[in-house]
Amino acid sequence: EDQVTQSPEALRLQEGESSSLNCSYTVSGLRGLFWYRQDPGKGPEFLFTLYSAGEEKEKERLKATLTKKESFLHITAPKPEDSATYLCAVRADSWGKLQFGAGTQVVVTP
Amino acid sequence: ETGVTQSPTHLIKTRGQQVTLRCSSQSGHNTVSWYQQALGQGPQFIFQYYREEENGRGNFPPRFSGLQFPNYSSELNVNALELDDSALYLCASSYDRGGTEAFFGQGTRLTVV
């Protein structure tokens, strides 16, 4: 059965303190790995899609990387506005179902 | 802000009642998926609609049903509501079934009492 596990569950950072979030997955045939940011009570906001091992994507202070078994979301010099829950999801079917992990809640303090 | 809008934003229902949630997809997107997100958990896939037909279904009972209209907007219907149905219901739209990006609406918070 396909599985997505995110770690840590929660992360507290000082402003400017860089860190990484992990998403490990077990799927039979990855057709995309997705990262989303979610603020409390809101819908997930799309960040990145990665398709193959070795691929990297960047957006402002965020950088996502992908290996054959896991993905990392690196947050460089975070600011308080980066506080959110970060969700990882995989697509194993051609028709679009996303399977999500439970998320990592990130709090960045000034 | 995405172009995906959901209504209502909040509602409270009594156990045993029926509810209809609505979603307008982003312009140019022909695929809509629905997810249920319980507090502290990741979203769980309910089903997907592609060009007005159900295209895939997650592990949810038949009392969860849906529709997609010619303009690609969609409805999620839940019958015989149970307390455990209390959750944030999310709609996501994408260009085609295997679209590279899926954009979510702000969600509908359903509370069953």
Briefly summarize what is shown.
The complex is a heterodimer of chains A (110) and B (113). Chain A is mainly beta.
Helical segment tally of chain A?
0
Give the proportion of residues in helices of chain B. under 10%
What series of H and E elements makes up the topology of chain B?
EEEEEEEEEEE
Note the main sheet of chain A: 6 strands, mixed
Poorly predicted runs of chain A: none
As a percent range, the share of strand residues of chain A is over 45%
Rounded mean pLDDT of chain B is 93
Number of strands of chain B: 11
Mean of all residue-level pLDDT scores of chain A: 95
Q: What's the domain count of chain A?
A: 1
Write the SSE topology:
The complex is a heterodimer of chains A (110) and B (113).
Chain A: E1 3-7, E2 10-14, E3 19-26, E4 33-38, E5 45-50, E6 56-59, E7 62-66, E8 70-75, E9 84-90, E10 99-100, E11 104-109
Parallel strand pairs in A: 2-11
Antiparallel strand pairs in A: 1-3, 3-8, 4-5, 4-9, 6-7, 7-8, 9-10, 9-11
Chain B: E1 5-7, E2 10-13, E3 19-24, E4 31-37, E5 44-50, E6 53-57, E7 64-68, E8 74-78, E9 87-94, E10 103-104, E11 108-112
Parallel strand pairs in B: 2-11
Antiparallel strand pairs in B: 1-3, 3-8, 4-5, 4-9, 5-6, 7-8, 9-10, 9-11
Describe this structure in words.
Chain A is mostly beta strands. In chain A, 0% of the residues lie in helices and 55% in strands. Chain A contains no helices and 11 strands. In chain A, a hairpin with a 3-residue loop joins strand 7 (62-66) and strand 8 (70-75). By secondary structure, chain B is mainly β. In chain B, 0% of the residues lie in helices and 50% in strands. In chain B, the strands form 2 sheets. In chain B, strands 2, 4, 5, 6, 9, 10 and 11 form a 7-stranded mixed β-sheet that branches. The mean pLDDT of chain B is 93. The interface between A and B is medium-sized, with 26 and 33 residues.
List keywords for this structure.
heterodimer, A: 110 residues, mainly beta, Immunoglobulin-like, six-stranded mixed sheet, 11 strands, globular, B: 113 residues, seven-stranded mixed sheet, four-stranded antiparallel sheet
